[in-house]
Structure formats: C-alpha cells, structure tokens
Amino acid sequence: MGSKIYVGGLPYAATEQQLSDLFAQHGAVASARVITDKFTGQSRGFGFVEMTASEDAQKAIAALNGTQMDGRTLTVNEAKPMEPRSGGGGGGRGGFGGGAGRNTGGGGGGGNRGRW
Q1: Distance between CA atoms of 51 and 26, rounded to whole angstroms?
Q2: Backbone angle region of 25, left / alpha / beta, with phi > 0 → left and psi within -120 to 50 → alpha
Q3: Where are the alpha helices (DSSP H) in the chain?
Q4: End-to-end CA distance of the chain
Q5: Three-state DSSP state, 103
Q6: Beta strands in the chain (DSSP E)
Q7: What is the CA radius of gyration of the chain?
Q8: In what order do the strands lie in the sheet with 43-51?
Q9: I need a surface site. Which of 59, 75, 91, 107 has the fewest CB within 10 A?
Q10: Local confidence band at 85 (pLDDT 50, 70, 90 cut-offs)
Q11: What are the residues whose beta carbons fall under 8 Å from the beta carbon of 102, sequence distance 6 or more?
Q12: pTM
C-alpha cells in the first residue's frame, strides 16, 4: 500500500509535473497534486504526493524535507487524514446587541443622530 505525503512551501509557480518529477527520483509516484484556490486557480503553496511504496515515501520525506525548490524551503512529511467537516456552517453567533446605542447619539457628541 502507498503513502500520501504533504508537501508545503511550494513555489507558487510549481506544477504537478515538477512535483511528480521531484519525488520520482526517490521511487514510483502514483499521483502528485498541487492545491489551488478554487476562485482564482492560483497555487496555495502546498500539495500532496502519493507514492506506490511506503518505503519510497519514507526515503523521499527524509531526502526532501528542508530542501529548496526555486528558493523556497520545502516541508515534507506524512499527510494526516483530512478532518471531517461539519455541515451547515455559521451558527452560534448570537444576536446583534451591544454597542452603547450606536444610532441614538450616546456619549461622544451625538455621532450618528439624524443620519439614520
């Protein structure tokens, strides 16, 4: 069974092919993926490589962690499983109270009186 590797500190111009080629020097690469921003399509500076053999993955981690790629220091380690995301989002924000009467002109000289 293969191993998934996290690669941080990637140059923003790095391609999946370059990432694959870099790790292929240490063993067979099953896949290489550079993570991009879903709105702009630009690299987020990290990616994942899956190697076919766990031994090769360990060799690649040892050999590449702390090395440079286009002037940036790579962080290479075993990828942790993705945490499950809770659905629904938001929640727990409470009301809109507080603020010492923003529209009533309170303490500081009548601030927003008449504006609303």
Answers
A1: 9
A2: alpha
A3: 16-24, 54-64
A4: 65
A5: helix
A6: 3-8, 29-36, 43-51, 68-69, 72-73, 75-78
A7: 24
A8: 29-36, 43-51, 3-8, 75-78
A9: 91
A10: confident
A11: 111, 112
A12: 0.70
Structure-token match 């962080």, residue found: 75
19 Cβ contact list (under 8 Å, min separation 6): 7, 10, 32, 33, 34, 47, 49
Q: What is the pLDDT of residues 86-116, one digit of tens each?
A: 766 555 666 666 555 555 555 555 555 555 5
* Tokens, residue 92: 């727990």
* The predicted structure's pLDDT at residue 82: 78
**In sequence order, what DSSP letters do the residues of 72-83 get, joined into one string?**
EE-EEEEPPPPP
Encoded amino acid at 111, one letter: G
Strands 29-36 and 43-51 turn out to be antiparallel
Hey, what amino acid is at 11?
P
| Residue 17 · residue 24 · CB < 8 Å | no
Between CA 12 and CA 6 the distance in angstroms is 16
Task: Tell me which residue of 1, 12, 4 sits closest to 61, measured CA to CA.
Answer: 4
